[in-house]
TrEMBL record, chain A:
Biological processes annotated in GO: quaternary ammonium group transport
Every ABC transporter domain range: 12-243
Lineage: Bacteria, Pseudomonadati, Pseudomonadota, Alphaproteobacteria, Rhodospirillales
Signal peptide positions (record): none
Name listed for the protein in its UniProt record: Spermidine/putrescine transport system ATP-binding protein
UniProtKB/TrEMBL annotation, chain B:
Transmembrane segments: 15-39, 64-89, 96-113, 119-140, 147-168, 203-224, 256-276
Alphabetized UniProt keyword annotations: Cell membrane, Membrane, Transmembrane, Transmembrane helix, Transport
Protein name: Spermidine/putrescine transport system permease protein
CDD domains from the UniProt entry: TM_PBP2
InterPro entries, sorted: MetI-like (IPR000515), MetI-like_sf (IPR035906)
Organism: Dongia mobilis
Pfam families, per the entry: BPD_transp_1
Length: 358, 285
């Protein structure tokens, strides 16, 4: 079974969940347990099937085979309007002809809750999401991007869902506001204690917010783990490449170490798992160091500094070793003392590298 | 710098040709009709003694029957078209997919044929021993009464003729409703009917209102349907106006009728626009 969070009961369980369109499997036999109160993010490039998966979970699309269990109950055939779950859409999908208050109260109106209680709850949610009280009668189309996000979230929370789904609601927002909203969303998650299932193509976004991350590729869930695990122990080249810059060396196992045919050298690596014959050695840019002597690290390569990129608190160097380009990242205080085109030795320890399959 | 450019800001200066064109081509005839409605009956001198005599004559005549027929038929046409067109518009915007273009074309095709020819086509269908009744007679020996020259067939003709004018604005309106907004309402617990009432209907209202206004204004002025299909059994107000301007050579009376019709329709349109402010519906204000 793929990673149950210890100590917490699963709220949502997916068993062999599959969705086919003709002969094409958009979502291919997914098994997953999501714990009560968890912030789980599904990450994948466009076309990986994450949106189809989400549409099945919300009840807007029906599974071709497999099961969706909510607290142990099979909800496969329950349509979206009967499921105790709610989604925040990519476009937010607010009702443009209604006020902020009417938007938030929509589900309560459908349930037949009386206007006074509706309004009280709406104002409560607005306060929680830091929306000014006088926005109650404001038309949603007049709200700013960040305010609209909050209205959409308040509208979803007003439904009192067991699980809240998010379909990349932050993707169309500029960088600075997105960073603020990511943190806000994580705060809201803490305050409400609800289960959040989030979908994004940005692993960086997923890292900031999630308890656990599931990486999707071509309809399959290729790895599930905490942000730490995904970052430090990716199982495949695909997962390792998904976040930021990474150095990848094609290798084949040779005795206790590995050989890199493209570099023409043997390298020290973590012990290869049984049955692992060939794959890639992954080294994060921050694990690479500039060396004085080859003996200072388990592995050393000589190359030439080709360029440098200042990223604010960190600086990246492009070092060319033969045909291959390596990215070395240093904190600003530990900047490389030499200049461009200098010949340098770069190196890393075996424990800082990861062997991954293709 | 010419005097013109000094007197007028660039915007108004460039609008001048169009303003002149509209003044001569649109406003002038309208004002002529209004002016004629005040001159003595059966005269053609615009500067004769102005009075309300023509209006008094209209009010003392039985013209209200013609007004009633026109407004009633137009209202019935709009109502029937709304019910007929909404499902079709919904289909065109959401269901038919690649067939929508072909179906749209089929709905447009009749517009290329003269209205009178199409109306006479209906006569061929419904007349005694015609396409419909003739077939029924020869196949089943059943001979129901023909509905040719009845108000019902007039109404059918109007519904048929004005269908595209309701359908296309409505289709545009329906296609303006974002799918995600409908999904969101559904996801928040609304039933299909509630999604329709709370999201589809209000958000497609601009298209629906434009369709209503367009067909109503056109249908109030309808004349050929009553002449051809109604067989002059009922006289719409447009017919009275035509008669006044042609056979009767009573331009002032015709003008008075025309002005009254304009006022009536204008008043109704204003009420509708007040009730459904298009900008508010679209969320622009």
């Amino acid at each position: 079974m793929t990673g149950i969070m210890t100590g917490r009961s699963p709220i949502l369980q997916l068993r062999n969940l599959t969705k086919t369109f003709g002969s094409f499997a958009a979502v291919n036999s997914i098994d997953l347990d999501i714990a009560e109160g968890e912030f789980f993010t599904i990450v994948g490039p466009s076309g990986s099937g994450k949106t189809t998966l989400l549409r099945m979970l919300t009840g807007m699309e029906f599974a071709s085979s497999g099961d969706i269990l909510l607290r142990g109950e099979r909800i496969n055939d329950l349509p979206a309007n009967k499921r105790p779950t709610c989604m925040v859409f990519q476009s937010l999908a607010l009702f443009p002809h209604r006020t902020v208050g009417q938007n938030i109260e929509f589900s309560m109106k459908i349930k037949g809750i009386d206007p006074a209680r509706r309004k009280a709850r709406a104002l409560e949610l607005m306060a929680q999401l830091r929306l000014p009280e006088n926005y109650y009668a404001k038309n949603v189309t007049k709200c700013s991007g960040g305010e609209r996000q909050r209205v959409a979230l308040a509208r979803a929370l007003a439904y009192e869902p067991d699980i809240l789904f998010f379909d990349e609601p932050l993707s169309a927002i500029d960088y600075k506001l997105r960073k603020t909203l990511e943190k806000e969303l994580k705060d809201i998650h803490r305050e409400t204690g609800k289960t959040f299932i989030y979908i994004t193509h940005s692993l960086e976004e997923a890292m900031v917010m999630s308890d656990r991350i599931g990486v999707m590729r071509a309809g399959r869930l290729v790895q599930v783990g905490t942000p730490q695990e995904i970052y430090t122990a990716p199982k495949t080249k695909f997962v390792s490449e998904f976040i930021g810059d990474v150095n990848i060396i094609a290798v084949s196992v040779n005795g206790s170490g590995v050989t890199a045919p493209t570099l023409g050298v043997g390298l020290k690596s973590p012990p290869a798992p049984a049955g692992f014959a060939a794959g890639h050695l992954v080294v994060r840019p921050e694990s690479l160091r500039f060396l004085e002597h080859a003996g200072e690290a388990d592995n050393a390569l000589s190359g030439r500094v080709y360029n440098e990129y200042v990223l604010g608190s960190r600086i990246q160097y492009q070092v060319r070793v033969g045909e291959q380009v390596f990215i070395v990242e240093k904190l600003r205080q530990q900047a490389f003392a030499g200049k461009l085109d200098d010949n340098v030795l770069i190196g890393w320890d075996a424990k800082d590298s990861i062997l991954v399959t293709d | 710098m010419s005097i013109l450019s000094r007197l007028l800001p660039p915007g108004r200066r460039h609008a001048l040709p169009l303003i002149l064109f509209m003044a001569v081509g649109f406003a002038a005839p309208l004002f002529a009709v209004i002016a004629y409605s005040f001159v003595p009956a059966r005269t053609f001198d615009l500067w004769a003694d102005w009075s309300f005599d023509n209006y008094l004559e209209v009010f003392n005549s039985t013209s209200y029957i013609a007004f009633g027929w026109s407004l009633g038929l137009a209202a019935a046409t709009v109502l029937i078209l709304a019910l007929v067109c909404y499902p079709v518009a919904f289909g065109l915007a959401r269901v038919f997919g690649k067939w929508a273009t072909l179906i749209t074309l089929l709905f447009t095709l009749p517009l290329f044929v003269s209205e009178n020819v199409r109306l006479y086509g209906w006569i061929m269908v419904f007349i005694k021993n015609g396409v419909l009744l003739g077939t029924l007679k020869s196949l089943f020996g059943w001979e129901p009464d023909s509905i040719v020259f009845t108000p019902e067939l007039t109404l059918l003709g109007m519904v048929y003729v004005y269908l595209p004018f309701m359908l296309f604005p409505m289709t545009l309106g329906v296609s303006m409703v974002p799918q995600q907004t409908r999904d969101a309402a559904y996801d928040l617990g609304a039933s299909r009917w509630q999604v329709f009432r709370e999201v589809d209907l209000p958000l497609s209202m601009p298209g629906i209102v434009i369709g209503f206004l367009l067909t109503f204004v056109l249908a109030v002025g309808a004349i050929a349907e009553a002449k051809v299909l109604g067989g002059q059994r009922i006289i719409p107000i447009a017919n009275d106006i035509e008669v006044a301007f042609t056979y009767a050579q009573n331009w002032p009376l015709g003008s008075a009728l025309a002005v009254l019709l304009m006022l009536l329709v204008g008043f109704l349109v204003l009420i509708v626009l007040r009730r459904f402010d298009l900008d508010t519906i679209l969320g622009r204000r």
